[in-house]
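cron nightly-structures :: item 1 of 1
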Amino acid sequence: MATHTVDMEEIQTTRGEKTLAVVLGIFILIGLVWAYDRLDQRSAYNVQATASEQEAIALYNQASQELNAATTKRARALSDLELRRERYRTALDAGEPAADLEREYRVAEQTLTAAEERVRAAQARVADTQPAADAARAPAFEEARDLARRDARLTFFLRMVFALLVLGASYALLIALRGSRYLTLGLAAVGAAAVLALVFTGDYVEDYVEWRRTGPLALSVAGIALTIAAFWGLQRYLQRRIPLRRVRKRECPFCGFPVGRNNHCEGCGREVIAPCSQCSEPRRVGVGFCGSCGKA
């Protein structure tokens, strides 16, 4: 079925069409952002250490747990000592017998001293086991960091290619619909693609990794080039359509000055009626087909 283009200057886009185009752009953007997010290749990394590395890490973790337990017991012993000391002092101030309270206070002192010794011993074990544990964690940490960087790099390139493809496809659609009543749909697609490019830029423009900092710049250059190309294509289309529009209004196809029934334009002096190349009958310059023979 042949498709017929319409003169967008004669039939203006309605408010309803513009509203629907905005709504369409929003829904297109939702789908694009969903796909953009699914391109994230980063995940949790479970890098296994060797048996000796696991043993060193386990010893350090055990020492850390013992230190936490000893610290908790010391805090309890200190609290109990303060409570028993307060009771002992109160009894002395009141002149009451305080032999039992003194005994409990001395026991609390001994308990606190023992708890502090256990804390110091646990701290020493932690200090002894930490260097080996740190050395055991280092290879796994480096490997996990390398994997994370690799996946982040892959995610970056996938998202950049996706944004460029969407931008290019939206401009191609805009050019394809340039002479159609569905041009607003192409504009909706271009708007959604532009917002997606902003999302990409927001994700990576503040990144400290050099190869990802240049990504938004590359996307900007590509977007500028595509936009200029689309603008150039639309201008070429309009240049072909403008003479016909002017002829319909009985204007000069070259300068737009009203010509009426004259053979030459009174604005630029150029010929507006010329012989047809097929039948030699008078033919208005700028029309697509001859009115006498119907030839192009």
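cron nightly-structures :: done
Residues 146 and 207 are 17 Å apart (CA to CA).
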